[in-house]
Amino acid sequence: MTVAVVGRGFDHRNVGGEQRGVDGPVAATVNRARQLLPPTARAANRPRWPYVLASPDFERVVQSNGAYCRTVVTAEAHDVVVVGAGNGGLSAAALLRRRGCRDVALVEPSAVHVYKPLQNYVGCGVARLSELTRSQAELIPKGVRWYRTSAVQVDGATGTVRCADGTILTGGDVLLAPGAVVDWGGLPGAVEGLRTGRVCTTFVDTELRRTARMIDTLRRGRAVFTVRSQPASGRETAFKPLFLACDSWRRAGVLDAIEVVLAHEDARLHPVAAIAREIARHLDRFGVTVRLGTSVSAVEQGDTVLLDGISGPERLPADLIHLLPPYAAPALVADSGLDALGTGGFLAVDPETLRHRHYERIWGVGDACDLGDARTGGALRHRVKVAVDNIQRSRRSLRLSRYDGYTVAPIATGHGRLSFGEYDRQLRVRRSLPVPDQIRSRRIWWWLDRYGLPQAYWHRILKGRL
Question: What averages of pLDDT result for each successive group of 10 residues across the chain (466 residues)?
Fold first, then answer.
């Protein structure tokens, strides 16, 4: 980005060499800077002007002590700008490069990358915290330019991305993958319960040690686990901590002394009947009390959940409260006018082509999108392929590919066993492997989810190879 600030009253001797202002090095020529001032100002300022320095401000005209001052920004142009470097953003950037995209920019402020599907295992004490993260710098695909900042606004009509540090980027296409944000403010009392009470979660990486300790040390009392309706990141995986905790308590010989309650917002355990039956089978095995159509409206005093269910409101004290957090859309989407009526602030993209409903150069993948489908890592891999394919197809005026809503529900039903149900938008069971039944909980699916997929994630998915 080229930025200049010009004004009168500055020594012309500063023009010749590089000057450094408070915000960085000189980044504009004197001749160009002179043209920003009205002719009268240019005449009045000779010979003591201009002074040129860098500033992160943009498109702003100010007056200070009667002087004319203005900032000028020239955006960095890229073939494709990807916003967000989680699973979707990184794998999309890598796949774009592998398919010949000459110039990809990646906007992401985080220095650490988290493999979120492993969080349930770490939080239940069956995986190490060191397996969860990698340095973001190590994962940036070769040939991709990383802007370590956050995007604050996207102009859908021009493909311009404005960043928090003042950087401005333009892309022939812009692929948005900023993810959803945990919104504890949407559940009164949750933050206090996490700090000092009996609330825990495996869906926030900073809470995993504490969650594992709470599960390991509980020996009697009541444990409440929650499953939320959409938008919820990894909805099906909310059953993982429930079943893994129950199996740990069974192995320790204390399960009979613990009342386990599932508060599930939906009227059904799962929209796919076969998957719902498998979930119900293991809930019965562990003696879990199931409350369907029941939501948690608040947490009181760190150890009591307020439930709203079919029979009305209820206060339920507990010794352990595991929450699937409320999620919200990133502010970037609404601030850019890229949401729509009924999306709840999430990105308004076509659920099949993943192109924005109104802006042809804007695409979206991941939890920030309003697709109506489950938000899972398995689904994201398919969405990334469709989005990248469609960016290329749109440039050649070809018919766009279609995403059919494929997703996967990897539900650990105990230590060493897992159900690996796949389905699409029509709730039809899918099978990507040549086996008769992936929904029935088996040891092979546990090994795939616990050990095989993490390796595939780091070495193939994030590199655009799978």
Answer: 39 32 34 42 37 34 38 75 97 96 96 96 96 96 96 96 94 96 96 96 96 98 94 84 98 98 95 96 98 96 95 95 96 97 95 97 95 82 96 97 93 96 92 83 95 96 93
What is the CA 362 to chain-centroid distance, rounded? 17
Give CA–CA dist 11/355, Å, rounded: 52
Residue 154 tokens read as 């996207």
CA distances 51 to 41, 56, 77, Å, are 14, 16, 27
Q: What is the C-alpha to C-alpha distance for residues 295 and 187, in angstroms, rounded to an integer?
A: 11
Contacts of 25 (CB under 8 A, 6+ apart): 18, 19, 54
DSSP string, 8-37: SSS-GGGGSS--EETTEE--S-HHHHHTTS
What residues are paired with 295 via a beta bridge? 308
Residue type for position 325: P
Half-sphere exposure (CA, 13 Å, Cβ side) for 158?
12
| DSSP-derived pairing of the beta strands 112-114 and 133-135 | antiparallel
Report the C-alpha dihedral over residues 269, 270, 272, 276, rounded to 10 degrees: -40
Chain CA centroid to CA 421, Å: 23
CA–centroid distance for 209 within its chain:
22
H helices of 208-311, where? 208-217, 239-251, 273-286
- Whose CA is closest to 225, among 281, 280, 305? 305
* Cα–Cα dist 366/376, whole Å: 8
CA distance 384 to 311: 43
- Give the DSSP letter string of 25-88: E--S-HHHHHTTS-HHHHHHHTTS----B--S--S-EEEETTEEEEEEEEPEEEEEEEE--SHH
CA dihedral 424, 427, 433, 438 (to 10 degrees): 140
The whole-angstrom separation of Cα 76 and Cα 298 is 46
Domains in the chain, please, with CATH?
A: 2-74 (no CATH), 77-180+329-405 (3.50.50.60), 182-325 (3.50.50.60)
Six token digits for residue 8: 């009168």
Q: 342 and 230 in contact (C-beta within 8 Å)?
A: no
The answer to whether 178 and 332 have CB atoms below 8 angstroms apart is yes
